[in-house]
Amino acid sequence: MGCAASKRSRGRGNSKKIRKPKPWRHPEPITRTQLMQMRDEFWDTAPHYGGQKEIWDALRAAAEAELSLAQAIIDSAGVIVQNVDLTICYDERGARYELPKYVLSEPINLIPEN
Question: Disordered: where is this region (predicted)?
Answer without folding.
Answer: 1-31
